[in-house]
Amino acid sequence: MTDVVEVIITGPDAEWLAEFTRRLVDDRLAACGHNIAPIRSIYRWQGSVHDEPEARVALHTRASLVERLTARANEEHPYDVPCVIAVPVVHGNPAYLQWVLNETMT
Which pTM was predicted? Predict the structure, then answer.
């Protein structure tokens, strides 16, 4: 087990999510973000099923920063309830994991 997590956030479009990702990296809340677009999201919201294009980012960061990332998403995200999910990194390239720790705030 490591102190590194992958935080998945979805957003309305690739450009918004890329700008949000850049702000998080600039503020050292994440070492990097791998943005994927388009994705297709099918979900229930307020009693209706939606089928919408979105974008997704996988951020690499410290487990201790997940609460701050969630707070930023809640403040800046255009959605009422943004998707923010943290998945623990169990194993990985030790040099890469150390880089993630070096590039994020403690």
Answer: 0.95
